[in-house]
Each structure stands twice: as structure tokens, then as C-alpha cells.
Fold Peptidase U32 collagenase domain-containing protein.
Amino acid sequence: MPGAAARVRMSARPALRAASPAFRLSQTSVRRSAPLVRAVEGQRNPKQKPQLLAPAGGWPQLKAAVASGADAVYFGLTELNARARASNFAPSEIHDVVAYLHERGVKGFVTINVLVFDDELPLLEKRIRLLAEAGVDAVIVQDLGALALIRKVAPHLPVHSSTQMSITSGEGAEFARERGVKRVVVGRELSVQDIQSVHEGTSAEVEAFVHGALCVSYSGQCFSSEAWGGRSANRGQCAQACRMPYGLLVNGELRVMGDEKYLLSPQDLAALDMVPQLIEAGVSCFKIEGRLKGPEYVALTTRLYREAIDAAFAADDDDDDDEQKPFATSQQDWDDLHQVFARGQDATHRGLTPGFLEGSKHQRLVRGRAPRHRGVFVGEVTAVTKRGVRVWLSGGGSGAMPSVAPGDGVVFDAGQPEQDEDGGSVFEVIDHGTHDGEDREVELRFGKGWIDLQNLHEGMLVWRTRDAKLERRIRASYDGVDKRAGVVCEVRAGTVGEPLTITLRDQDGRKGVGISDVLLQHAESRPLDEAAVQRAIGELGGTPLCIERSDVRIASGLFLPAKGIKVARRSAVDALLAARREHTRASDMPDGKVLSALKTRIAEEGLPRRDHGDDDVRSASSKTMPKLTVLCRTRQQAEAAVACDVDEIILDFLEVHGLREATEAVQAAGKRAVVATPRILKPSEERLWAFYLRLEADALLVRSAGMLYRLRLLGGAGATVSDGPAKGCKVPPLHGDFSLNAANTLAAHDLLETGGLERLCLTHDLNAKQQVELAKELGVRAELLEVIVHTHLPIFHTEHCVFARFLSDGDSYVDCGHPCESAQVHLRSHDGQDHRVMADMGCRNTVFNAAAQSGACYVSELAASGFGRFRIELVDESADRAREVVQGYQSLLRGDITDEQLMRRLDLIPDANDAVQGVGLGSLEVRAERDRSELSKTNAKWAKMDE
């Protein structure tokens, strides 16, 4: 059986294998399907220099980014953004921020990159107006409802889709573009080749992360914080569960892992050496992650990527033979980057990798030894003296001899990063000599009471967490440095009795004109000349402008006091700066409250009945309970659900093997068969739609924007495919899953109406009360909503493969040996719970929460609010346990048992290892979201950052 599964695994990997020709999808053949090519053909711009986008968690970081060469800066307000723990900017500051940036020729992007709840939409409308009036250059959004509101409130305000929108294909990018998105930020899991495919498959601009932290889960698809802390990552309150230690259970046995504890904590991303390839791939904007980091980090990363982009673009322009010229980052630059921030290092892993840009390399991505920034490895403890610690400096083969100087910070690493570690500022360094011309031994001494020497011992690793000299050098590069935009200065003085005119023009064609406050006169002794004018104008010191070129035209025999010239200069500067500040300010926003009008229209218009849609949705007056749908991941579970007389079954098999037979078996039993599609659709998987259509299921559960766009491009539900690999197949009704992240009425309306869905499951970020309120907002159309009343929350959905990394020596599907086909894996968290890990047909891993979550106590309220369907999701339950779960809910809905009785039954159902993990309310629990003021603000000291 494992062999059969292997033959049909649908992987995005180069060595794609399949059981039939229908599955042989080469990278070339699936890159761009014909209809999509036609949709974007002819819209390509000639190659332009990519923009460099730097992060700013506050004013110090923003000024550092500008001084270091950023083309644009992204930042958030104190609400509605994905970095709640950053200092951020108050709404009252936004005009000053935008003015500061625009005067210096830098763009400002504001993040609204969270899911927005219905009760927050009025605030969002106010903020959209504020941002448009202030002249921000773009807003970065995740939420489809927020996107719809922006397009109505400020139609000319550019919108960029956040990486939280989980866009990983050209079709996903087109889904966003047709909703008004100008630029898409692609998932960090894409390779350079994938990014190029996205670029070729959309007319939207493509932005990619090039440096900073890597989330292990696909952005927008992580529910670990929601499951365990009630503080969702989709709401800007990530609890960083991926940075926690986990044990590895293989087939029920706890595996001895040595120092590998942080199994889900990737090293950080660094793509400096890949800048030329990314430019060639069509990336329009290079994005640096780090709004939680300090100004030193921002300054260094921005400067280095500025230099890399400039060098690579210049080399590309000068390349006559059309060959790529090599580009390399110096060892000193790499050392500096590792020092300011790198994560997950050990003596040989320095904490920065290309991530997924070179494809899947699981052995490299996650080291597993430590989850946080260490700095630079300098050596090992050789002895503990009465006054200090002797350290053998080696640097672990980094290529440069490390050093430690007074004022530097160090930490002593015993391989237990989850515990408190000793470290501090070095007071004195005593050199004990060089050995073999390479390594040397030093003694580090500290201030009295700073270090407990009794906790230290021989063999401990030593890290330099702070380099005082580097810190001073970086600060000097931006502190007091003000970026000045180059302008052309035109001076005209032609006729006696008229004023002298100064015109300043910037690179974008904006101009400022100033005239002298006195009129030109006949010169009696010293006539006005070009040198005198330039002396009076000066270099525009004290302003964010500098003169790059002058064009001075003065008629002979004229005179004007220098004071008059300076008046004209000041007026021209003020006028140009005003033009630079105001050029993006909105002036065409509609009057009145747009949101109220939108919601009124949604409430009034209703959705038309569809002939090909569900025939089992309840009427508005129905008093019966919603029907049950059961999601099954094995054939045995599906057979158990059929035996329980469930009328609709979702087939969410991890492999395509057996899916057709299971679909036919469910339909033969007189039940509706719905087939689940992947949550992530990468470029090499874009033709999976044909396989799913050929199954002839009663409906498809759509989980990604890319798949939804493709199926709509084919004509949507009811359409017959006219050509291609699914010629003659009909597009069945489309159901949207939680992964589409509908969190408010506007988003739900968009997906149901514009998106062509006939049923929609809301995001897990909504608790039961919020789902009830949203259903009420939709009125009769709430019958098209489905709520998951039982599940093991999918806490992580990752491109990184736990099986390949820790059960093989392989880097990808090509060489891992496919341990996922024989090994049953759980991750044991610090509280002793075991979370099941499963690999899907694309080799992506899903980690399911150990404890089930149940909405049993909410079913009456949910039913009364109009929900049309209740869903039960099974994970790895046996047929008997699946039957027990389904029959329990059937008894509850009939009124045979109470919700308390059902919860007691569910609480005793064991997992696949016969261990009882329990049940709770999970994300459905009605509880207050943590206030942002309760979240610890980040320290602006780059050397101490742990995020």
C-alpha cells in the first residue's frame, strides 16, 4: 500500500511521479495555462529597477530606513495591523510620517494586514479616509472585506495584498488583482522559479520577502496561537508557538533527538546573493521583514540590499552578452548580518539561509537546536577561573577569526535555551596567545555580580550577542543623516522691473516656483552673474533637497540683492515640498458613510437561488436543525459516515490514491460526495483542477484563492469545460472553506456573490458568538454558511516537512525516502499533548491540535442564527471512533443527549496512540481578545531582540 501511495503523490517537486498520464505535470507544461496567459498577455512592463521596502516599527526605525536607502517604508498604526507588539504609529502621527517620507522621495505603505471583524469595520472606514487624506502610497491588506471597503471608500488608494493572503500562484495573484490589488506579496515558501511563474501568470506587480524571520506555517494559515492562547496570528497577536520545543513521537514511541528540540523553528531568510536571480524572475519589490526589530537592524539590512540591488541592476544593464554577472556579498557584510540578527544557530549553522528560494532544503531550513537570536559564535569555554572564563576562539569555520572586546555582550550556551542562560557585558579581555596562527585563547572578565561563574563549565558554547564597535558603526551610518532628494534648479532673470524666478523640479516632474520679493534693477557696478546666484541659493542645506543640476539664465546688466534670491529659493523649496507631500492625497472620496450603504445593500439584495446548487438548504422559516456534513480523511472513515446515514461526506484524502473509488462509493450509497482541494496551490500544481473535475463529485471544497479563480475562469459552477484535459466535464457547485479567511460580512458577501461560492465556512478566527452575529447580518443567506462544530484545529500548515527533516537525510521528496508513507508522527508539546502531523499530496505538513474542539454547547444558537450546515472533521480516527463521534452529534441534534453529555463522551475518545487528549471549546470559545496594551512592546535594542 505505501508503494501505491508513492506512485500517485502529487508533488511540486522536480521528480513528480504519478500513476497515469493525467498526473504527469511537468514544470513547463503547467506553468501557464492558456486562458490565464491570454488574460495577462500584453500587459507586461519592461524591466524596471525593483523597489526596496524596509520595515519601521517606530520613528527611529523609519528614519534609519530612509537614511539607509529605502525606496519605501511599511509601517502600522496602533490598531488593525499584524505587529501588535511593535511601537507603531498613532493615527494622529500619520500626516507627519507621510510628509517626512514624501519630502525625501520615499513612499509610505500602511499595513492593515489582519482579519477585520464586523464591529471593527466602522473604525476601518475612518482609518481608510485618514490614510487617503494623508496621502499614503498604498495599504497592505489581508482581509477581503477590508479590500472591498477600501475600493469603495478610497477608489484611487493603491492596495497591496499581504503575504497573509496566502498567494502562491499566478491564479491566486489574479484573484487579488481582479479585486483591485495592484501588487501581491507572495508566500515565503516559493522558489525563485515559482516566483517567476507567478510573475508570468499575472499582470499585478510581485513583491517578495528577501530578509528576516520565516514563519514555519504558511502566512494566513496558522492557527496555533488561536488554538492555545486565544491570540490569533491573523489578528497580529502571534504567540510564536513554532519557536517552542517539541518532542517527536514516531509510531507511538518518543524518539531520542539529542539537542534537536525546536522542530518547527526555521533559521532566518537572507537572499543577498540571490538578488540578480530575483530581479530576473520579475520581482518588483524586495521586502525586508522586521517591524519588531530595532533601527540598527533596519539600517544595516536596508543598506546592504540597497547596494546589492544597485549593483545587480547596473550589472544587468551593462551586460552586453546577456549573461548574468556574478554578485557576492563580502564576508564582513555576512558577519554583520549574523551579528545584528540571525536565528537558530549552532557552531556550524549561522542562522541565515536562502529559505525556500532555492527550493525545499529541509535539512538546512530547521536546525532545531535553538529558537532565538544568538549573534556570532566565537568559541568554547576551556576553563572557569576565579575572576572569569577562558574561551577558545574559533568561530566554527565562518571564515573570519571572531573577537570579543570590552563592552561586547556574550551569552554562555549549555544547550538548554528554554532555561535562563548566563551572559552579560564584557568588562575586560585578557589575551592568552595565538595557536597555529588561527585559533587563540582569551579570558573574559565581567563586572562584579554580573555573571554567576558557578553556572559555567568547560565545553559551553560562547556567543557574542552584542558587538559594541559594530553598533557604533551602524549608528553612525544613519544617526543625524538626512536623505536628500536631488532636484534641478532653474533660475530665470530677464527684465528690469520683474522678479527673479527660481523653479525646482524633482525626478517625478513635480515643481516648486518661487519669486524674489524685490524686482530686478539696472546694475550700477556689479551685475548679477551665475556665480552670485548660486552662492545665494547655496546647496539647499537644512532641507531634504539637494541640487543635482542647475540651469541659470540671466540677462546682462541686472542686479538683485542676495536677500531677494534667498526669498525666491525658500519659496521654491516650500512649494516643491508641499507638492511632494500632497501629490498622493485623495480628493475624490465619496461623502457619507460608505460602510452603512454597503451593509444595507447586502441586507436587501439577497442571493439568487441556483439551479445547480444545494437542494438541501433550509428555508428561512425552517425550525429544524442544520444537517450534518462529515469530513473524512480515510476510506474507512467515509464508510463509517455512510453507515451513520450522513447525507453529505467531504473526502479530504492525503493522497489521490483511492479518491475516485471513494467518491463513487459515497455516491452509490445515495450520499453527496464533496471533494476537498488543497489549501495551497503552487505554480507546478495549477492544473490539479482538471483532476478534480474528472472525479465528477457533487461539489468541490475550495480552499485557495488560486483554485477559486481557476474554476471561475472556466465558467463557474454549472459550466462545461470546452477544451483541455477536463474537456466535457462540468464544474460542480463550489464550497469555500475556512482557509479563505472570511471574517466579516463584506468578505462573506464577496466570496458568495463575486466569488461564485454556494456555501462558505467562516474562518477559525471567529468565535461562536461572532459567527452567530455574522450569520444574522446575512439574513436569509446565512443558510449558505457552514460551521465546523467538531475538529482538531489545523494549527500549522507548512511547506517544511517534519518527516523528511527528522526521519531521513533527504532535503525534498526526491531523496527523502518518503517516511510519511510508513511512519505515524506526533509532536509532543511542553504540556504533554501529542499533535498529529500529516503530509498531503504536495508534501506539505499539517499539524493538528491534540485536543479536539467542539461547539456542542453552541449548536442551538448557531442553528437559530440560520446556519445551513454543521460540519464534523475527522483526522486519524478509526472507523469505530469516527462512528462514535458522528453518532454523538446526531444524538445531540435530535435532542437525545445534552451538550454536557456529549462533551463527556468526546473527552474520553483516545487518539491513534490510544492516548486521551481531551476536548474543549477551542477557537469557538467566547472570550475577550487580549488587548494590545497587554502585549509586551519590543525593545528597540537590536542586540536583545528575540522575535
